[in-house]
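#struct-help
A.M.: can someone run this one for me? Single chain, 199 residues.
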Amino acid sequence: MLTLKIHNELLECGTDEAGRGCLAGPVTAAAVVLPNDFSHPWLTDSKQLTERKRMELKPIIEESALSFGVSHVMMEEIDQINILNASIMGMHRSIDQLTMRPEFIAVDGNKFKPYHKTPHECVVKGDGKYLHIAAASILAKTYRDLYMQQLHEEFPMYNWKKNKGYPTQEHREALKKYGPSPYHRRSFRLLPEQLKLEF
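D.P.: on it. Structure tokens below:
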């Protein structure tokens, strides 16, 4: 069972992102403040759950949370500022959306930039340790997956409905055949060097 949060006595949010390793689409971040009496038997790192379970947990988290925020950082910004900075920017924007100012921020991973003067702690694999980070990981993942399913309707040849923009063999084969879409991240190595695309 995951621990609720790091500091029980503080108003604390958990934050995480999804889509850092993708070739296409946004990186999506979420921030969540859970009530102190929250628990749920399924809630854990989103990567450990099936897509169906994540989608079932999404409304439960949204209805139970004291507050939550979700933010997409689009391809153009990723290409301008790099994926790490874009991930952190997404987390900041998600925290901006909270209806209450957290007293402490629990961050999944090992890199973060200060958010105003709010103290924070980076927790490696935090989505498998703390419920509010796990909740943020599920919202980030489900919102991003739904967005990629919308983009799939526009560009079905890449099968984003299935691969969500990750560099699967099928996705790379489609890139070789059709070239990049407007939703591909131009700063990423879309194909190995010997198969370099002409932009």
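A.M.: thanks! DSSP finds six helices and five strands in the chain.
D.P.: also worth noting: The chain has one domain: 12-154.
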